[in-house]
Amino acid sequence: MIARFPGRRFAGRVARHAILILTAAFALLPFVWMVSLSLKPPEEIFQADFHLWPTAFHGVENYRVALTAAPMFRFLLNGLLVCTAIFALQLLVCIPCAYALAKLRFRGRDTLFSAVLVGLLLPPQALAIPHFVMLNVFGLLDTYAALILPWAISTFGIFLLRQFFRSIPDEIIRAARLDGLGEFEIIWRIMIPMTAPALTAFGIFSVVAHWNDLFWPLIAVRREEISTPALGILLFRDDEAGQFFGPLMAGAVIIVAPLLVAFLIAQRRFIDGLAVTTMR
Amino acid sequence: MTALDQNRPRRADAKPSLAKRSGEHGLGWLAVSPALLLLIGLLFGPVAAVMLFSLTDWQLGSFTFHFIGTTNFRTLFTDPTFWKALSNTLVYAAVVVPGTVLLGLVVALLIEASPGLRGFYRAAHFLPVMSTMSAMAIVWGTMLHPTIGLVNRALGAMGISGVNWLRDERTALLALALIGIWQGFGFAMVLFVSGLKAIPQQLYDAAAVDGADGVLDRLRFVTLPMLGPVTMFVVILTATRAFEVFDSVRVLTQGGPNYASEVLLHRFYTESFDFLRMGYGAALTVVYLAIVVLLTLTQARLLERRVHYS
Amino acid sequence: MGVRSRPYGLAAMAEIELRHIEKSYGETAVVKGVSLSIRDGEFLTLVGPSGCGKSTLLRIIAGLEEQDDGEVMVDGRCVNDKRPKERDVAMVFQSYALYPHLNVFDNLALPLRTRRLSFAQRLPFVGRALPGRGGIEKTIRAEVEQAASMLDIAHLLHRKPGQLSGGQRQRVALGRAMVRHPAVFLMDEPLSNLDAKLRVQMRAEIIALHRRLGVTFVYVTHDQAEAMTMSDRVAVMTAGELLQVGQPEQLYRDPQDLRVAEMIGSPKINVVSCDHWISLGASLPPGVDGNTTHLAFRPEAVGIAAPGDRRLNGVVASVENLGADIFLNVALADGCGTVVVRTHPDGSRSEPGRPVGLQIDPACLLQFDSAGMRQRQAEQVGAAG
Ligand SMILES: Nc1ncnc2c1ncn2[C@@H]1O[C@H](COP(=O)(O)OP(=O)(O)OP(=O)(O)O)[C@@H](O)[C@H]1O
Ligand SMILES: [Mg+2]
């Protein structure tokens, strides 16, 4: 039907691009604005006419201020550390549980699974007070442990991995048992490699969620040295140097960049990991 | 006899041999025990604790507390700021949910309509989803800045005088809703795209032969009905996220001016962790929990009834 | 055959003619210059192996796909630039392609509504209030119910497709094609998703439907048995080319191409190359000329005899007893292949391992050249003419 209505077809294409460019501009404008401001000297930010590219390039200075006035790299490193630790803990807890729920028969299994489903309903913010109190009792507030421990269990992870484990045929597991593999080896050598895409997806989901989380770090942590990126940029803004838009935007770029770069490198993975796994 | 036995359906599933049963039983419990402990310690225990706290006058740091019955709830329900926060959250959701879903749907339809620049558009629209909200909220703060902000500069260029978006009672909540849509619509788009990909081409062919071959007819008879389940899912997801709005509020308005942008979760945060009124905060949590769970369950029920095609 | 009477509805005449249709996807040519004329009221089947371009050809006839070159003519008029809905064709798809959100009634009514109601009348809610809609809806209801009762699905009208069995869905798909009295029915492997028993039953029903409607049917399948039992004529395709078009018995007895001979008939036709024939010490049958490289014969054209000097000899490799017929697989010596022989159960019994000679009816021997084209003996041409 392509050639049948060349005129209408062309108009359709133009309209498609016109609208999409508009919506893409809406999505991208804050990023462009952020980078633009991060390269400008204060006078230019406040002057009446606006140029996307600075007339006086002030980028080096802005980024230098951002990096020296606040431990930006420390924030990133903290983010990496916290996200890695959370994900590792989650895997350690979720994989055996999901495997047992999917493939082993034991009394109470269905009850436990219902409990996991109920857990999925609970918004994590609702648990903030008791978590805070517990950490306080153990004297763990304002430590890395405070950032990590409450997230050690992920009902979403258990649920997701169970669904994937279930899709692996029982015959494979029986064959492995006949070959003399123990349950641990079955998980390690068969289940994990076969569900690698699901684990990657869960990893992306978990890391993105905790890298970007502000609510919990705001409660659990006060010290700048152990702040995660989302909290760090806020501390920087409320700081003296953060009162200047140039360095503030430079700081925002530094905080936002790592995940965005990772996303641009592995777009398909990220999109599938976040979207398709939530649909399950 | 043996042949007969073999033909009989094996009941091993229901009644495994003792050795096997105890083996798998023990293994099963061993494997789930860490998860089970944490589930109790970090999820269900805390939920119970919150409910308990909500009935006490406990303050952080003090060693004693008294049961005061439903006093916290009565305080909560007579507190105008609570009602303000609740209605603001509902208004926020009422703007963000349709905005996100419609924008996501339109963008998804357009992206999938033809292959030109598809990859670029998908990545561009998805970028906000990946970005750290607290940092981007700061950026939005400068964009909505009354004098140097992009929005008012653009309006000024068109001869319209803008307002101080985040400091004006009339616009603060709407500005936050705009930011919410900005962050969420790319995610909705991706979900819709995967829904669109699952529509079989034969259905479009059938529609074309049946006479429904215009853009609108295809949308009405094939695309939109086939997207029904995905749409319901996106609505649930967006609504849940709208009820969890916190970062942008905390960073940009702190609920102000004059509670014009106060929302449930931010109210909860300030009461519990700024003022350390744990009992009150716990009562707020219980209400919040009830709302969110009820919302999810109703929507899930609706989903079953309305969009199940079989 | 002639033009059948059309008791059901007032369908238009529809002769279809394809002229040199070409279609490629990127570099790969999928349809390579197909010309074919389909008579009005005929049941024509396109048969060929998977991926040979049958569906593509059918979709080109429907207007769902545009050919790169060539014309589609309906009743002598070129319809190249007509949209599917303007071509007066109906199509039944392999996966049925029913609208899952509409019940059976609305599925059947949709093609009528899109045609008869104006755009405004079709709008949800608003359209219902517009003048004229009620009357049209009433006639649509009557027609849908008539078609449904004809297909025995009247009791299912309120169900959604998801609540139907495969056979019932198939009927609904047929009904949706039928309600608007198209001049041409296009069917793309409509039975391949059904189980064997249902398939045979639906086969009979589609034949009966064709009788009753008397309109042109173009039917695609890769199952030669389906093609042979259902059609007035069969068109055999491989790799985008049309090899031969003819009545089923014509394709069976008189194939023009070795590939046609091999595709039609079950069990497959026996093919023995002349080289093997000679190396096995058998004398070539009379009338085989120098161009012939392969000799082919159907299982029923061979008889079992004692091993002999100038004939093909072999050893019975296996016996398949189908009750009414017994098929012997006879392995030729020196790995020159096997020959399938059909014998009657009351004939002499053969056990595997027994050496036998093959007695081939020379009148049923088909000769092919190195390109797979049929070579004709002088007397065969005479007999056929
Ligand atoms: N949209 C397309 N893009 C590229 N190649 C295609 C497309 N559609 C079909 N093809 C190719 O064209 C060839 C013919 O496809 P077609 O569907 O017509 O085969 P078919 O004869 O109907 O096979 P089957 O019996 O399996 O349905 C196949 O090799 C297929 O891979
Ligand atoms: Mg096909």
From TrEMBL, chain A:
Bilayer topology: Multi-pass membrane protein
Coiled coil start-end: none
Natural source organism: Bradyrhizobium retamae
A Pfam family assignment: BPD_transp_1
Subcellular location: Cell membrane
Transmembrane segments: 14-33, 75-101, 113-138, 144-165, 186-208, 244-266
Predominant localisation class: membrane
Any one GO cellular component localisation term in the record: plasma membrane
A Gene Ontology BP annotation from the UniProt entry: transmembrane transport
Family: Belongs to the binding-protein-dependent transport system permease family.
Domain ABC transmembrane type-1: 76-266
Name this protein carries in UniProt: Sugar ABC transporter permease
Alphabetized UniProt keyword annotations: Cell membrane, Membrane, Transmembrane, Transmembrane helix, Transport
From TrEMBL, chain B:
PROSITE patterns: ABC_TM1
Chief place of localization: membrane
All copies of domain ABC transmembrane type-1, residue ranges: 86-299
Transmembrane residue ranges: 27-53, 90-111, 123-143, 172-193, 221-243, 278-297
GO cellular component assignments: plasma membrane
Name listed for the protein in its UniProt record: ABC transporter permease
Superkingdom: Bacteria
GO terms under biological process: transmembrane transport
Family assignment from sequence similarity: Belongs to the binding-protein-dependent transport system permease family.
